[in-house]
Amino acid sequence: METGQVFVSYCRDDEDLARALRDRLHDASIDCFIDSSRIRAGDHWRSAIVSALHESAAVVVVCTNRSVQSHEVTFEWSYASGLRLPVIPVIYEPSLALPAGLDGLDRLDFVDPRGRQWDRLVSRIMEARAENSATVAHLVRLGISNVFSDRQELFRRFTVSQVLDRIATSSDLLVVGRSLEAWAREFRGVWTACETRSIRARFALVDPALPKDSWMTPSAYATLDVQPSVEKFRLMPHLSPQAEGSFELYFLPNAPLFSFTYYQDLIGPCGILEIGAGLPFEKRHSFILRATDSSQASLLESILATCESMLTERVPAFTLESREP
């Protein structure tokens, strides 16, 4: 699908309204995504919905007393808001109280069938598609789903605990950075992922024995964190004999100017790339990389290969071993 499609969010009881909306937008040459299989298992539903949202230019929410109480609908427009997609509430019932998050958005009145604001809806969608074509679509073709200039925004949406929650069972986790201080704080969560979910984790940070004046971009903050990070990782207990996960810690011969995290979730491979590791926070840029087709996958794979080459033929400084039964 192209990124010009519109995602129609609705609850199952309002399917007739959603289909009528889709048909009317189709007459205006606007493609819509409507999920008509909501009785499937939750994991299958969630994966399909997330993929469709990443491929959409805007989200139209069919707002009724039923839909505003639907957990599925709430997830859809909330996730879309996190992607910075335009969310357009379309009101079908009078005096409808919208939940926080929707109540501050510009809404369209579709209560009276004779006075529905179709022209305004089409205009809003076309504006969203034009903006998407100028910015997001180009980045998506490069394999980039989101770009963050605000490091705090990146951390709100991709915290260590969130990544650990999203990572698929029996998948790989590769983390390369300067000090990995945020990951070290969550060493118990990393251990749990390896122990109970068979995660194969490889972490690489700068060698704490490296003279600080040899760092490509010295950072007092990072140099203070390197050794404590190593010590926290070493606090992880042995894995049980039946555990199929693993953990390896590598030391790098210099301090990289970027950090990279790679894992697999319900959507597929995901990479979090932060450039400018030695620069002030406001001068760093972060990219979320998604392999949604073969051409986009090559970008993510090339960065992954670069990071893995740093570890080739290196002996892990620390390996989490299974304890004896």
Automatic annotation (TrEMBL):
One Pfam match: TIR_2
Domain TIR span(s) in chain numbering: 2-125
Superkingdom: Bacteria
Transmembrane segments: none
Gene Ontology biological process: signal transduction
Gene3D superfamilies per UniProt: Toll/interleukin-1 receptor homology (TIR) domain
Cross-referenced InterPro entries: TIR_dom (IPR000157), Toll_tir_struct_dom_sf (IPR035897)
Record's protein name: TIR domain-containing protein
Species annotation: Micromonospora avicenniae
